[in-house]
Amino acid sequence: MQTSFTAEQLRDPDTAASNQVLRTCVHCGFCTATCPTFVLLGDELDSPRGRIYLIKDMLETGRPATEEVVRHVDRCLSCLACMTTCPSGVNYMHLVDHARAYIETSYRRPWAERSLRSLLAMLLPRPWLLRLALLGAGFARPLGPLIPGSGMLSQRLRAMLKLAPRHLPAPSAVETPREYPAQGRRRARVALLAGCAQPVLAPSINEATIRLLTRLGVEVVVARGAGCCGALAHHMGKHDPAMAAARANIAAWSREIEGEGLDAVVVNTSGCGTTVKDYGFMFRGEPEPWRGRAERVAGLAADISEVLTRIGYAPTRDPPGLTVAYHAACSLQHGQKITAEPKALLRRAGFRVTEPAEGHLCCGSAGTYNLLQPEIAGRLRARKLGNLRATRPDLVAAGNIGCITQLSDGGVPVVHTVELLDWMAGGPEPTALAGVVATA
Ligand code: SF4
Ligand code: SF4
Fold first, then answer.
1. Nearest CA-CA partner of 329 in 198, 191, 166
2. What is each CA distance from 254 to 67, 186, 271, in whole angstroms?
3. 149 falls in which pLDDT band (50, 70, 90)?
4. Does the domain at residues 313-439 carry the CATH identifier 3.40.50?
5. Ligand 1: which of 44, 82, 93 to mutate, most ligand atoms within 8 Å of CB?
6. In sequence order, which residues have a C-beta less than 8 Å from that of residue 123 and are 6 or more positions away?
7. Quick check: CB of 50 below 6 Å from ligand 1?
8. Any ligand 2 atom below 6 A from CB of 51
9. pLDDT in tens, 95-127
């Protein structure tokens, strides 16, 4: 694709990077077939190619984002299915991230929307604030269906209350920074990204991860100072808070690298994993030592399924006789290109594994998408649940808390893959499976 940026515009490193991305697109349109919003809405402007044209025009003219551009970019899930399909290697992720940051600084959203986005950006990365908010939302949950109106604000309020868990788990000891020693001979030392929303919604995921890794001879450190990966702010175009969160993690893990050393930074929320693996790009324009540190951390980042494959996983219990429908989170399959490992590990653990039709399509979770675009997210959820249930599973496994929350209450239990692997290696049965095992 030809671009017409001026030399002055190309002096901006973000514009120069987007120019490179735009020039690799040959506007073939292959990506449209696998784009969830194009599949649902059938509008070229809600396809990757359409958005690429809108973003190109916005950046080239250098004008503030228009309502039309904002509407279609906001509807993008950042699921990155288009990157898997694209034969030309277009890095749509970097392009849309730049577009979102550009929109954030050049477009004034209506007051209610600005407030909501600021509220989410403040709440979600802070576990104690999120816990308070979810406790309140849990009490108000029954009032959700009573909220009148069909406007976006009413839809969003209903979606938020619906997603609030009925019962919030108690805080877990693994939220506090500390070291978990390896059992037996130490084979490796890793940092675990404890995360922000996940330990509030499902602390059992980090607990299972630590149990499983330490049992396999891996020392795990939850580093002091590490927290939210920055993805939630990053995907809302909020550049400064995203960089601040990433910087805190890079500093915390660099201290570990330079201290006792790290063999990996383990991430068990694939949405976060995609962002941590992109820290090198995010910090490309930063002065040293940050640029080098960010690259080093990004190079060490690994999904839990990659780490378990690398060090070798073996179950200790008999096969449970359960069929698991594997839900491939977009951030895992499209963002990190990890497709085989989770299924192979589940099979090794003794589960029968099925895969749904349209496995490449997003479930509608996508960070804050299910809160900000509830109508599209709801349609994608229903479609995904239908495809998962059609494989007649006893349960669903996924590697991302966002997907787990989005698909819960859909008639089949949804569990993180690592909880199943831990269970089959001697850990406790995941609480979401209560009643399933007895009836299977
Ligand atoms: S598939 Fe790739 S090259 Fe083709 S239109 Fe989509 S982004 Fe552009
Ligand atoms: S990231 Fe997903 S929703 Fe956005 S354009 Fe690509 S395929 Fe479509």
1. 198
2. 42, 21, 22
3. confident
4. yes
5. 82
6. 129, 130, 133
7. no
8. yes
9. 999 999 999 999 999 998 999 999 999 998 998
Q: Report the nearest-CA residue for atom 8 of ligand 2.
A: 35
Element (H, E) at 353: strand 352-354
Q: Which ligand is nearest to the Cα of residue 86, counting in written order?
A: 1
Residue nearest to atom 8 of ligand 1 (CA): 25
Instruction: Check for a shared fold between 7-106 and 313-439.
Output: no
Q: Which residue's CA is the nearest one to ligand 2's atom 2? A: 79
Q: Which atom of ligand 1 is nearest to the CA of 32?
A: 6
Question: At residue 131, what is the residue type?
Answer: R
pLDDT digits (tens, 9 = 90+) for 43-67: 999 999 999 999 999 999 999 999 9
The distance from CA 88 to its chain's CA centroid, rounded to whole angstroms, is 25
Task: Report the separation in Å between the CA atom of 50 and the middle of ligand 1, taken as the mean of its atom positions.
Answer: 10
List the domain boundaries for the chain: 7-106, 120-163, 173-308, 313-439
For residue 311, the Cα-to-chain-centroid distance in whole angstroms is 24
Q: Whose CA is nearest to atom 6 of ligand 1?
A: 31
Share of the chain residues as helix, strand and coil, in percent rounded to the nearest 5: 55, 10, 35
CATH class of 7-106: mainly alpha
Identify whether the C-beta of residue 273 lies closer than 8 Å to the C-beta of residue 314.
no
Q: How far is the CA of 28 from the centre of ligand 2 (A)?
A: 15
- Output b/e per residue, 395-421; b: 16+ Cβ within 10 A: bbbbbbbbbbbbbbebebbbbbbbbbb
Half-sphere exposure of 145 (CA within 13 A, CB side): 1
How far apart are the CA of 174 and the centre of ligand 2, in A? Answer: 35
DSSP single-letter state for residue 129:
H
